[in-house]
């Protein structure tokens, strides 16, 4: 794993965006895997700036999002569909038919099968962007998820629902289930860019760097992937683990 540390979240976001923009310019037909959550929002902001100032075009780009809440309509502002529209898609020249996000309102099991078909048809993903859950989850793959999992329905842990309740009125409004790309669907990407930001991720980041590869800590699978780049900001670094 190639690890780069940045002094701040702003620097991390700029670094991530220039990396992604460069990849899009090198391969205009790139297939990107996209993440939601707080971590990548700064990167999306910068990608929009790069689209405007450098003319980075997304006309021929295909995207796959990691996950969506079960029972969440696209119109709900907490859906990941709405998140992507707000933070990226409505600001760039991407074509709607090439942006794939699981449909939270479809029959969940059928939707998982359909999503896998789409991944087979339009994939593989060239560059997968990931955030890191405080419990080591990637996508919505909670601890204990088999490494061989493909797109599936997951019951969210209380800790994840609590963490995400900051976007809702309260934890009781956070959906109990989600559709997520599985761990095997994620690591099938040719390259992975993991973004780690904030003191709340310190413990998880340390576990990723120094812990064992185990299904109890889903992100640990990344150690087996041949092409992983990690961008971490200073606040995510434990003072006891200095990385050059
Ligand atoms: O960036 P955040 O908000 O800390 O979230 C970390 C991870 O948790 C999720 O939002 C799911 O809870 C992932 O999609 C994300 O990568």
Description:
The protein has helices at 9-26, 41-53, 80-87, 108-122, 158-164, 183-187, 202-210, and strands at residues 2-6, 31-34, 62-65, 67-69, 99-100, 127-131, 152-155, 177-180, 191-196, 228-233. The strands form two sheets. The protein has a seven-stranded parallel beta sheet, sandwiched between helices. The chain has a three-stranded antiparallel beta sheet with strand order 4-8-7, with helices on one face. The chain has one domain: 3-Layer(aba) Sandwich (Rossmann fold), CATH 3.40.50.1360. The chain is globular. By secondary structure, the chain is an alpha/beta fold. Bound molecules: 6-O-phosphono-beta-D-fructofuranose (F6P).
Summarize the structure.
With 244 residues, the protein is an alpha/beta fold. The protein has helices spanning 9-26, 41-53, 80-87, 108-122, 158-164, 183-187, 202-210; strands at residues 2-6, 31-34, 62-65, 67-69, 99-100, 127-131, 152-155, 177-180, 191-196, 228-233.
